[in-house]
From TrEMBL:
<dbReference type="InterPro" id="IPR050298">
    <property type="entry name" value="Gram-neg_bact_OMP"/>
</dbReference>
<dbReference type="InterPro" id="IPR001702">
    <property type="entry name" value="Porin_Gram-ve"/>
</dbReference>
<keyword id="KW-0812">Transmembrane</keyword>
<protein>
    <submittedName>
        <fullName>Porin</fullName>
    </submittedName>
</protein>
<comment type="subunit">
    <text>Homotrimer.</text>
</comment>
<dbReference type="GO" id="GO:0046930">
    <property type="term" value="C:pore complex"/>
</dbReference>
<dbReference type="GO" id="GO:0034220">
    <property type="term" value="P:monoatomic ion transmembrane transport"/>
</dbReference>
<keyword id="KW-1134">Transmembrane beta strand</keyword>
<dbReference type="Pfam" id="PF13609">
    <property type="entry name" value="Porin_4"/>
</dbReference>
<dbReference type="InterPro" id="IPR002299">
    <property type="entry name" value="Porin_Neis"/>
</dbReference>
<dbReference type="GO" id="GO:0015288">
    <property type="term" value="F:porin activity"/>
</dbReference>
<keyword id="KW-0626">Porin</keyword>
<keyword id="KW-0813">Transport</keyword>
<keyword id="KW-0406">Ion transport</keyword>
<keyword id="KW-0998">Cell outer membrane</keyword>
<dbReference type="InterPro" id="IPR023614">
    <property type="entry name" value="Porin_dom_sf"/>
</dbReference>
<dbReference type="GO" id="GO:0009279">
    <property type="term" value="C:cell outer membrane"/>
</dbReference>
Amino acid sequence: MRTKMMAATTMAALTAMAGTAFAQTNVSIYGVADVAFVAESGGAAGSVKKLTSGVGSGSRLGFKGSEDLGGGLSALFLLENGFNMDTGTLGQGGLLFGRQAYMGLSGGFGTATFGRQYTPQFMTVLTADPFGTGSAGNAPNILPLTGSGSRMDNTFKYVTPNFSGLTGELAYGFGEVAGDTSATRQLGAAVNYTGGPLTVRLGHHNRNNDTATVKNTESGKNTLLAATYDFGMAKAYFAYGVNKGPNSGPLRNAANPYGSAVAPRPSTDSRDVLLGVLVPFGTNRVMASYIRKDDKTAFNQDANQLAVGYFYGLSKRTDLYAVYARIDNKNGAGYTVGGAIEPGSGNKALNLGIRHTF
């Protein structure tokens, strides 16, 4: 009897301790499952019809959590894996947590995080795009994300507290080249204001193109101003971007998709304009956007993208979507219509998909 009482007392103590621990720590699992039929055309290799993953949004499985450390200070982490619904394989080149992987501290001073993270400039593109950087209509078909994609490795990021709708971000990606602290390093910043129906965001990214062996190269710089205004019956989108230097305008598909005698050249001096609209009705929404690339180099490889889409909400977490986009390339430009994670193979694409978030 005494042994049973001791066991019961011990179990009660452990339960109380566990309850206290769980009360202080919050861990959640989330994700997106997205798959679509995709029909691409216009490329030199001919039309492509396929079932593919991560078209409207990249399919992912994530873990995030925080711990209350007391005094208004919290520890936090996020681990996000990208995967392919059509094949079951890992995304982002096989990285286990290739979408995001970071940890940090948050409090009255703001939030400081360390690891693989989205750049402030990518978050500015996301603000400007009615398609949410997904599906055939996604803005990154034309707009450069940064000099190296939407994420940076080895990154320290700081986000300020919210001052009456105004916030700021600063991100530094260590180049980690021995003997040269500036080679391959990246620096990003953004200022965001949200007040009522208006959001305005200015983002910048600077990529040092030096390497361990190549020195004194010109940096790639991207600056994007994005604004949205919610009228209630419709939401308007606008963006204007300036891109200068090597790696400031990389092509999503660099494999000469149209078979040009001279392969398309990534622009080193360009201007971008985006106009978009999103019209919600119930759980459904219609969206459209127009993007113009003005290449200021001697090659004058301009491009225009027109896209329209319809998302039908089966529930708050599941929707069906149909999106069509077309790009008109000028003077041998090589821009392609892709999806959230694929670059595309031609200048036209149709997506018919389903997406579930959890």
